[in-house]
Design goal:
Chain lengths: 356, 356
DNA sequence: CTTTAGCACTCGGGGAGTTTGAGTGCTAAA
DNA sequence: TTTAGCACTCAAACTCCCCGAGTGCTAAAG
């Protein structure tokens, strides 16, 4: 059954007011808020209907109404106006997006912090890749006769390195041989495919090369592993204490505990949202996790490039300002996609050349 | 004035009991706890003296006594027995110290988390270097005609890399030239010494090389910069809610806000402790930061190698279990020092060789 | 001089009772 | 269908009072 215009107007007023004040709204207050030219008694009748239909709740008989999760849902789906960010706000975000370090982890971490600061809610951010990562190339750099740097690059164009110090001497040709060997034997393999079997074969081919193969490969495996179980960065968890619904320390504690279970967040919350575009809003009981049953989550996904995607999200009371949060989150997500979309090197290089 | 043995015994009992229960201790309870064969009245007299001397406090006239910061200080200095960790505990720490990734940032982050989990208090960890870092060597790896990887190694043997994609073509000899150039012009320089002046000279020497110099150098500068302003990792902030002294949300919030000001922690708390060995304990008002005036901090420093040091610390109520926390922290710090002290490569390499 | 028993006193915490006021639901009239 | 009016409800805030743990003081005993 479709609601009448007037009912919608009232529902909307209740939601918006409650988002601001966190207090039940009574019929009298609604008279003014809605601007409807009807008496409070009429509004009371409407409120009774809306309560009957499950859009509103009453903390106790003699209190005003507050939105139920169902009410929020209707509000988010139909009543909420797209919030436009102010110039000030977009400028702020744009500034913050000018991150110095472009290391993937750091950028994601920073993005999470930024969102948390922007919204005043706890936030999290992570990257996830749909396909299993593989190594694309190996390089070994001789530092001195007793140490070398291994550089591995994944198919997602992520580059990692590690310095190895050896108890024995090492020569350039030796390293070259190793490099070729690594590149022929292990490129394009996923983590599971790097079997001990394969290692043994390659090690044998390496001859007397000190088991260096296994060292570098196990480093590569660490890299692949950390990529598959991508880290979740949380930020601003203390913000939940700002909101009256978490004045009860017990509740705050539960939510915080949940937020520090990073793997759970990744699996159950963020990853399912990877492929949804735009902002996704999960209200109270719509959340799978028990700990989030009376909180809400807003998620947005962004493109990292090379098929990788990421998710940033915000957690807060069901009473959170969905319009604003969703707008900010989407804006940041877009910004990140653009950031990753542009080549690392702005074509400033050639421009700098004097001679044209 | 030196306290009598009996007074010390009483003070100690008060502190230890209060650490457990967070409740004021009365004279009757102390009769049992101390094992002294005197009446409660006698103890009351002693308590009055200790209060007079500033070692104890009374929340209100008709309550028992709790230790004052001065009392804690005496306890920590003279009365506290070195806590020995149980086998179970050392095993737990040793296990946790077997970290997979040996990337510096991650290790430090992990260490902080571990300590927090171990002690049930919020913890932080950071690395700091006394001397200004410089770049030790540059390497450039050609990936394909339009991209290359820059690898820089600092004097602290930290290696960082970055992938550059270019709008133009690139050749191996070109890269080699660049590498030599970079290594002659910029090695051994601190951040300030990498002046625009120097850059211009080097760029000029590079001839038509597309301003690549400045790209790589500015990456190097980022690395140096991030090394100088080393990150602070905090973990387990939600643990403060476990303790009754922070049931007051306002207090918890203040402390949490402080803990998220990572730069402040670094500057005012951790860095001063860099060169103190062993555990350092700061009780309540001994802290410089206003926000910590009624909390305590335990710090321990560890060696990273190459002259770099790090600090891990724990923040909690003044009532925290100093003996246990200090013991755990020292143990972890030692473990970290050892971890960094041993070469990256366990000499397992040669051992793996079949043919001897 | 120290220790002890005894006793009056203090003060926070918790429970019961009361008041207040915002807000409701219902009814009867417009 | 809307409105005015009115009785009713209930949480929150306040007051009052009791309880008991614990103190400080005094006077006597060691």
């Amino acid at each position: 059954m479709e609601l009448t215009e007037r009912k919608k107007k009232i529902l909307r007023a209740v939601v918006e007011r409650y988002i601001q004040t966190a207090e039940p709204i009574g019929s009298r207050a609604l008279q003014e808020l809605t601007g409807l030219n009807v008496s409070s008694a009429t509004i009371r009748n409407e409120l009774a209907d809306l309560t009957e239909l499950g859009y509103l709740e009453q903390p106790h008989t003699s209190a005003g109404r507050i939105p139920s999760p169902k009410g929020y849902r209707l509000y988010v789906n139909e009543l909420m106006e797209e919030q436009r960010l102010s110039l000030e706000e977009t400028r702020q975000i744009n500034d913050a997006l000018h991150l110095k370090m472009r290391e993937l982890d750091k950028v994601i971490d920073q993005a999470g912090r930024m969102v948390s600061q922007l919204t005043n809610y706890p936030a999290f951010a992570l990257a996830g890749n749909p396909k299993r990562p593989t190594i694309k190339r190996f390089d070994l750099i001789l530092v001195d006769s007793a140490s070398f740097i291994a550089v591995v690059m994944t198919d997602g164009n992520l580059v990692k390195n590690k310095l190895f110090r050896l108890p024995t001497d090492l020569s350039e040709p030796q390293l070259q041989l190793l490099t070729t060997l690594l590149n022929t034997a292990f490129v394009g393999k996923t983590l599971d495919q790097l079997t001990p079997e394969l290692m043994r074969v390659a090690e044998h081919a390496a001859g007397g090369s000190y088991g260096l193969i296994s060292l570098v490969v196990s480093f590569a495996m660490e890299v692949l592993d950390s990529l598959e179980n991508s880290a979740v960065y949380t930020a601003g968890t203390s913000h939940i204490l700002d909101h009256p619904e978490y004045q009860d320390v017990g509740k705050a504690q539960k939510l915080m505990a949940y937020l520090s279970e990073e793997q759970t967040i990744a699996q159950s919350l963020a990853l399912p949202a990877l492929n949804d575009d735009g902002a996704k809003i999960l209200i109270g009981p719509e959340n799978v996790a028990e700990e989030l049953k009376d909180s809400s989550v807003v998620l947005a996904s962004y493109d990292i490039g090379d098929g990788m995607k990421g998710v940033i999200g915000v957690v807060g009371p069901t009473r959170m300002d969905y319009a604003k949060v969703a707008a900010k989150l989407s804006y940041v997500a877009d910004g990140l996609s653009k950031l990753f979309g542009t080549p690392e090197l702005p074509p400033a290089g050639p421009a700098k050349e004097k001679e044209e």
